[in-house]
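The instructor's notes for this session suggest beginning with a concrete chain rather than abstract definitions. Hand out the sequence below and ask the class to guess, before any prediction is shown, which regions might be ordered.
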Amino acid sequence: MYDLLIKRVYEKTDLKDGYRILVDRLWPRGKSKNEVKLDDWAKEITPSTEIRKAFNHDAAKMDVFKENYVKELNQNPATSEFLELVSDKLKQSNVTLLYGAKNEVYNHAVVLRDWIMNELESNT
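After discussion, reveal the predicted structure:
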C-alpha cells in the first residue's frame, strides 16, 4: 500500500502527491483550478459549518472538534464511497488530502487522515 499524505493546497505540486483530493468545502482563495491540479474534490466529507466555526483552528478546542468531526464522519452516508475511493487509489499510488488551513497541526485534514487510516486498518 502507498502512503496517505496531507498537504496545504498552497504548497507546490509534487509527483509524490499521487492522487490529489481537496478536502475543503470552499475553494482555496487565490488559486485557480489549473494551479491546484486536483483529481477529486470531496466537499461532502468535510466538517459541518457549525463545528468548523466553533473550532476556528484553536489548539485548545482540537479534542472537542476531533470528537465532533469523527462523529459526523461516522454518520455521513458519503464516507463509505469516499473510503472505497481512497482505498482503491492507495493500491496504485500515494493519495494526498489537500486543505487550505494555515495551521498544519490543528486542522480537519489531520483528523480525516487519522480517521481514514483507522477505518482502513479495521477493514483489513
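Then share the key points. The chain has a mean pLDDT of 94. The beta strands are 4-8, 19-22, 40-41, 95-99.
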